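Reopening this ticket.

The earlier resolution said the output was attached, but the attachment link was broken on my side. Pasting everything inline this time so it's all in one place.
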Amino acid sequence: MGSDAEGGLLLHYNQRAYVGIGFTPTQMKTFRHSQEQSWMREKMDMTTVRIRVRNDRHIVTFHYSLDGKNWIQHPWQMEVSGLHHNVFGGFASLQPGIYSAGTGTVTMRDFQYRALA
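Inline output:
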């Protein structure tokens, strides 16, 4: 990541309904109910971060790693059973998404999706 760049991973229903985490070069951000939860910002200096997300029976858990070996569970699990058509319309479903924002460069690679058995 460079300069003011920000990148992250979301579970997205639409622009009004998503959860996720994002990283700038100096902090981790948390998104719930389609808004950044600024009180949860966590300071960390990094240029590379790995992110995992698991949606198991509508309970979303994020993990991140700064070295690719040691994984840290995000302190907040998110219940997402209310992110569906009866609430938000559109006949969509909760889908994984990646994002980048700000100025600078965010490089994303090795994106994998696996369904839970």
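Reporter confirms the inline version is readable. The chain has a mean pLDDT of 91. The radius of gyration is 14 Å.
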